[in-house]
Amino acid sequence: MTSDSHFDRLQRQLDREISHYERSLSKQQQPEIPPAPRPTAHSLFNVPSKPLTWLWPGRIPLGHLTLLDAAPGCGLSLLALTLAACVSSGSPLPDGTSTQQGSVILFAPYDSASDTIKPRLQAAGGDPARILLLSPIVEDASHALARTRSFAFPHDLDYLASIIRTLGARLVILDPASAIPGLSRCLPALIELAHQTNCAILLTRSLRQSPADPLHSPGPTSPLPEAARSRLLLAPDPADECRHLLLTTKHPLCKQPGILAYDILASESGIPTIHWLGERDHSHLARLCTGPLRSPHRQAILRFLQNSATPHRIPDILQATSYDQEAGRKMLIRMRMAGELVSPARGLYTTANHPSLAHPTDDTPPVPNVPTSQSPPLANSPQSDVPPVPAIPLTDHATSTISTVPNVPNPAHSTSEVAQQPIDTSPASLESAPKNNGTS
Fold it and tell me: In terms of Cα–Cα distance, which of 302, 283, 417 is closest to 354?
């Protein structure tokens, strides 16, 4: 009986050790990683053809990505809300084109929904009931201040796709696109989502400075411009600093649409709104281009001033170059701010480094040219053979004090007998001084 109980104890102990070993072994084993999906290919013959549709003809296509860039102060988020207001209410777009009413999904993490987004949307005539605002995702609501995380890709891409399909949304606005972590890596998936849902996805991006040449902007510096099938740009109006322009700088799906001008106005309550001013032709913008010298009028101004002997007044410059008076004055001011022109006197302009400009070589005032041939050096001076030098005391050379600078001892020879004796510069002393014949 005793041996049986002892055996049972050993068996139970062995079972426990085997179970413990199996558990530890299972923890050490890593889960198998499924193989990466391989790329697929299909015949173009099996792809159904369908016409290209537009949310905003010529500017925002349905089923594609559109990038909206903006220079500082041009109302980037305000314009995005204006487009959302037009789609949500079915009101005409900024150029007067009619649009179909639909739902809009808005991602704007940096703006307040209560005091910024909703008041501006309503001021633009939008319907808040058709706007779905994506909020930060709550991860832990047990604390007084809930812990949230930002909307991110690829984690929330399926969630966005389900919302688009559920609402049948026509427009998705990501303002700004840089606020979504992982967006650049998921651009192909976002493009596919736009294709499958036939939804227009608008990405906004703020530029650090106003583009120098809106019609010839530099190449893309990020994947966003390459992924977008249409690219819009908000820039200051070169003809009026108080106005702005909406341009289409990338339009591979259609011909280039016109340029729209607008003002940003504030209501009595202080809510800003966009006031559209109609179209501007491209020749107008090219003539007033503020970038590199591609404009014939800018070249004509520089050529006229460079070939002139003296600076000219603004009316004379504009008359000689056949330039518009109002726009020409602003052009000259911008050229002066860019360093292409200088104004030596009030109302006068010429080119930089023009020969008529007398610029000193440095900021030191010129020293009078005092003849030194009539000022004999001191007797027994160690430099009596040295040719005369300008009347400026030098402390880094062992030179004697020149009589044209009276009573100024040379610090380099403060202990010498010559430096300790005052120099008599009276006419009698000069007459009695020995003449220097160039020999020692």
Answer: 302
